[in-house]
Amino acid sequence: MRLIYQTANLFSALLFFSCTGEGKNKSMTTAEQIHQAVITIDTHDDIDIGNFTDSLNYSIETKSQVHIPGMEEGGLDVAWFIVYTGQGELNEAGYAKAAANADDKFNAIHRLVTDYASDRIELALTAADVRRIWKSGKKIAMIGVENGFPIGEDINNVEVFYNRGARYMSLAHNGHSQLSDSNTGERDSIYLHNGLSDLGKKVIEKMNYYGIMVDISHPSKEAIRQMALHSKTPLMASHSSARALCNHSRNLDDEQLQWVKKSQGVVQTVAFSSYLNTQKHNDYKKAKDSLLKVVGANNNITVLDKYEVRALSFDDRQAYLQENKKLMKLAEDEIKELKKQVPPVSVSDFVDHIDYIKNKIGIDHVGISSDFDGGGGIEGWNNASESLNVTKELVKRGYTQDEIAKIWGGNLLRVMERVEAVAAELQEL
Fold this sequence. Notes:
Helices cover 52% and strands 10% of the residues. The longest helix has 28 residues, at 401-428. It has helices at 2-20, 23-37, 68-74, 92-116, 127-136, 157-163, 198-210, 221-230, 254-262, 273-276, 278-298, 306-311, 314-330, 332-341, 347-361, 388-396, 401-428, and strands spanning 41-46, 78-84, 121-123, 139-146, 166-170, 213-215, 235-237, 266-270, 366-369.
């Protein structure tokens, strides 16, 4: 019923505007209708377990960039919540600590969908689940694992993670893991495995067997090349953009994009400003930080950099964010003027990368991610409530509803379905 209603709305809106000739408003209204008619998926949203308690959780407007009210306001249907673990020492103690961290995050996500907001959000485990839940009107949670480090040296943990809901996993983050080299090796040309370790290859085999997508967003180029050769399923980059437009090691160069296309995979373009336009990001950040320090000093409000904020305890961080909100309000007019002189990275820059990837490897191989609450966010799409602005920019550039449906979620679901099919085939052998 939901799809029939949305399609009818879209047809009515298009008919109305074609008859009245109100061209100025046509794009906006068409974007709104398309946004409602397609499944919108953001494949990378970090979490802090402090936002998953009885008294503070995503059923209300937390200070995070993603929460259910924001998803509802912005028409964001699916958020992939991330079980992220920073890289630690490659020993028994390091693996145990990482496993405990992963366990806490898995538990937090499950509490959200079972205890805190079961009437508003549901965990999807398959592409079919996504479509079913979307038709019901609920929001959808999915789980990705950023860094396979918590698996330790026991490949049976791949099945454990699958059973807990993980449907994609990267084998490294910022630093080489026991499974794979990281893109950070570009800084010093020092690598641990020259790509994947033997254990990493076995983990990919297990991921193929159970149906977990292979995420290439953090591993080194050589590791990604080996993943493309070793995996029986399409590759996905959960949050990466085009290196040809922004020369950052976290982005994919043209050769890597071709590997993804050959695998029939998808690149989830990421709204992380320094990965979209590093120079523009740095210029605006420098100017804004300077402005906020002056306004903060004049109003006795301390200004911290992002690393200092991350080092705070959860409660201290919440208090700091509250003070920062006051600071931003005080500096609101000055920031508006600053943006005219030093424009920040915006939705337009983001869609430039979507355009590039689409033109390079095809409309079937590009998607969307934010990296919200992990450093992501740009002018126009800085939280889930602003998700419509991405669709507006796509419509402005002439993308059709079918194309937007692929970019916002259809391509990712196609990859999931193929991964699920391969898993079923392998399990029958």
